[in-house]
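Class, look over these structure tokens:
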Amino acid sequence: MNTQKVMRLIVGCLVIVAMVKIFFHPSSSKDTSVKTHQIIQGGNFWAKQHIPQLNLVHNEEDPVKKEHAGNTEVQPEEKETIQSNQEELEPEIPDDTPMDPLKIVHLDLKGAAPKVKYLEEIFPLLSTLGANGILLEYEDMFPYEGELSILKSSFAYSPEDIEKIKSLAKQHKLELIPLVQVFGHLEFVLKHEKFFKLREVETYPNSLNPQAQGSMDLVQDMLTQVMKKHPEAKWFHIGADEVRGLGESEDSKRWLEANSGDMGKLFFNHVTAVGRFMTKLKRGIKLILWDDMFRKLSSDTIKESGLQDLASPMIWKYIPNMDVKEIGNYISKYEQAGFKGVWFASAFKGASGIDQKWTPISHHLKNHLQWQKVIQSMPQYKSVRFQGIALTGWQRYEHHTVLCELLPVAIPSLAVCLQTLKYGSFDTEAEKEVQHLLGCQVELSNNECHVKGSFSPYHRKRSFANPRNLAFFKDGLKKLMDEWDSFLLTFRKNMEAIFYPDTLEEWLEENVNEHIERLHEMVVDVERIIKLNGQPKVDPSKMR
């Protein structure tokens, strides 16, 4: 089976698995909508394999960003290693970066990181869909070495994997931008006892204490190792969003007391120090950081920090009804602060629910339509340039939370969003282009979905049911169970072609196993109760 067929099968499998959860949770929301995905013949990516029409229920939720994360000192010999690594980096990057804004696809590797073999298939597709960059958020998938080797996942990419990823990106004309968090969302680092002393809040692993001895050494070591693997990078994203609990450590409290309680300065001191380090580490590197921590600060406060000379803000907002005027106010503020460039961040997945199983395409389409309005307004800002937009694809809201929808499920959403940016709207032309590239047409219709019957948990608990009613679905239920057992064997095999074992086990545990077990139990209960011939209710307290 070729890889495109595998990818089509994976999406179909994931969608069908979602239906099992719906079967057991039919009334989880008062307002539900049925999403009809009709996979049709005629495209290069999906169409060579027939997949039947599927009716899916999607419960709308109020989105959050993901709205859209021992010895702590570096020893002398480690500092020598850092210095050595810096010296090995190539000289200043020539300023030949493209003038046209980039459309970059964010790959969040903090969960369900795809195998390199899958990236070989997906990178050419991304390029065909209109992307010209990749924002690679490594987290624990980077092969950290030395004192930082504790940070890497057991399935982390190898140095050879990274070289392959870089080669694939270059081959398909995708600008590769590494992302390393340096302040907030450092859960994957601060969860380790070795780094507990660097936490801003002692009991929470979210954020780094910027005043703690060893904090900057840690950040510099991480950045140096990643930069060493990406010496050709023109841009580098340093994160710095959602610094939870900033100002709560005793170190920070003392600093604030001595500095008139200036929280903005506390934040800027750290990120500008990181920025200066990066520009010395790699002359000519262009830095990006998330903007949320300084949205409420004045342009004068931002300008005083000097951040505008070191980095460009990436304004993120993922909700469908995004306030375009609010975004405009941010752009005006950042222009007044002296930033020469600004980036935007939308979302094509992972921003509509912390445990979302499949991607609500209309949610993300509306988000991109709003961003398109912002992009069209950019000529009014004379001294700040629109540098590009990152279509984020969050895989977890943060390191300790469950997986959001998997990347293969979100490919149709990504296609719709990229084509919307290309055409300025999702008009007939854009829709035809998506259909041509994927062979996938998405139709939405509203309806209500209820599972009704005479075999509820109440009936089962009391062994009370009419055999005639049970006979209507007994054979079908048993057949369904047998089909699912067979289907899951195929599903597991094909998932293993894309993801590492830990991702597969987590996804099955979160989304499948419980429901399959309940289906098995239902089969057993039907066979048991149908033999009772409709006898009176049994008092549960008297049952053994």
About this structure: The radius of gyration is 26 Å. Confidence is low (pLDDT under 50) at residues 25-82, 444-452. The chain has 17 helices and eleven strands. Residues 264 and 294 are 7 Å apart (CA to CA).
